[in-house]
Write a structure and sequence with these properties.
The complex is a heterodimer.
Chain A: H1 3-13, H2 19-25, H3 29-32, H4 43-53, H5 55-68, H6 74-82
Chain B: H1 7-11, H2 14-17, H3 20-36, H4 44-71, H5 74-78, H6 85-112, H7 120-134, H8 140-146
Classes of the chains: A mainly alpha, B mainly alpha.
């Protein structure tokens, strides 16, 4: 799921989003590619973002991690937001 | 050098006459003996079994807790089962509120389980995949049949 999709899902299901949180979590994606989820997709990252940006950022970060790890149904979410993003 | 040049060493018993290597080996033997000695009345085998049982119990409890949290995802439980767009719009605020609470609950679980020797996010992913394999995905066609 790309950043725009993550943000659309946040807006849909949480009511708010923060691009900076997604950018921070996926910062390693540029050079690690598919394996980027082994970096910054941790509880420590959530704690750090909560300390820096507050509780909503921690929720956004956790939701991002749950989606990337397919703990919530990513395919369903993508289909839900595809129409909203005009795919 | 003649034996009488060092009279002190000659008077020592053989065990005390030994050098540092022999001291090291006796220390190792003492440690080994301590390891074999039962602590609090239980043998090493029993301790190992207790540790294994405790580990199994922790794993079972973690799986149970994660399974409960995964099954209470409000987005999947509510939105997936609503066909009517108007109803989805009406329930949006409630679902968002529930999603925020659900994420807090999930976070609490991760924090509680942090000292445990388990990767809870990884285990959650495994459980979620197992659940999806066991239970067929809800499609728009099957939705109307379920209600």
């Amino acid at each position: 799921m790309n950043r725009a999709e993550h943000m659309a899902v946040d807006e849909l299901l949480l009511g708010y989003t923060d691009e900076g949180v997604h950018a921070f979590i996926d910062q390693s994606a540029a050079w690690l590619g598919f394996g980027h989820r082994s970096v910054r997709h941790t509880i420590e990252t959530i704690e750090y973002l909560e300390a820096v940006k507050g509780e909503p950022a921690a929720r956004i970060a956790l939701f991002h991690i749950l989606i990337d790890n397919k703990i919530v149904d990513r395919e369903w979410l993508e289909s839900e937001i595809s129409s909203k993003l005009n795919y | 050098m003649a034996p009488e040049d060092n009279p002190e060493k000659g008077d020592q018993p053989p065990s005390e006459r030994a050098g540092p290597e022999s001291e090291a080996s006796s220390e190792t033997a003492r440690q080994s003996h301590q390891a074999d000695t039962p602590i609090n009345g239980s043998s090493p085998r029993e301790e190992l079994k207790d540790s294994f049982d405790r580990n199994q119990l922790i794993q079972r409890n973690i799986d149970m807790a994660l399974d409960v949290v995964l099954r209470t995802n409000p987005a999947e439980n509510i939105l997936k089962n609503i066909d009517d767009e108007e109803l989805v719009d009406q329930s949006r605020d409630q679902v968002q509120s529930m999603m925020n609470e659900w994420l807090d609950m999930y976070r609490d679980l991760l924090e509680e389980g942090r000292p445990l020797p388990r990767d809870l996010i990884g285990r959650s992913a495994e459980l979620a995949e197992e659940t999806r394999e066991k239970e067929p995905r809800v499609s728009p066609e099957s939705r109307s049949g379920r209600r």
